[in-house]
Design brief:
The protein has 160 residues and is an all-alpha fold. The protein contains six helices and no strands.
């Protein structure tokens, strides 16, 4: 399998993971869905040129996504992954709430992969140049988090 090179490729790969998780009733699909939703929203903002550097943002997003995709596929093949990825993927077999599964899934991308992708994307450049676009992504995440909470409140009394 070739690594995705564009956000469109990333979305296709995430769709494949989500479809597989639905087929196999795997809770790993919960985070994959959230990841896909976020990536699609970033792509939607890149298309009209809403980032300071849209080309860099696509490259950054793809670099970031490939870290998750590599970990996911390696885990499924029984190959080594980081301890934090293994912990998150192993949690799919635990009877946890939807939010707990999503939070376990978010841990490694936010606390490990983000710094790796930032370092790779900004190698030899001033990291501060990424600040405005990074903050725009945080705004997108805030919007998606609010949307997720609203949707969960429709099906769970715990979120009302």
């Amino acid at each position: 399998m070739e690594k995705p090179c564009t956000i469109k490729d990333v979305l296709k790969e995430l769709d494949s993971i989500i479809d597989d998780c639905i087929l196999n009733d795997s809770r790993l699909g919960l985070f994959a869905f959230l990841y896909r939703r976020t990536t699609a929203e970033i792509a939607k903002e890149i298309k009209p040129g809403n980032f300071q550097d849209n080309k860099r943002m696509e490259s950054y997003d793809v670099e970031f996504a490939n870290l998750y995709l590599d970990a996911y596929h390696n885990y499924k093949k029984g190959l080594p992954v980081s301890k934090s990825s293994a912990f998150a993927f192993d949690s799919a077999f635990e009877k946890l709430t939807i939010v707990q599964h999503i939070l376990f899934g978010m841990n490694t991308p936010i606390n490990l992969d983000l710094s790796i992708a930032t370092t790779q994307t900004m190698a030899g450049k001033q990291i501060n140049a990424l600040e405005n676009d990074f903050n725009k992504v945080n705004d997108i995440l805030k919007q998606i988090t609010n949307e997720l909470q609203d949707n969960l409140s429709l099906v769970s009394a715990l979120w009302s």
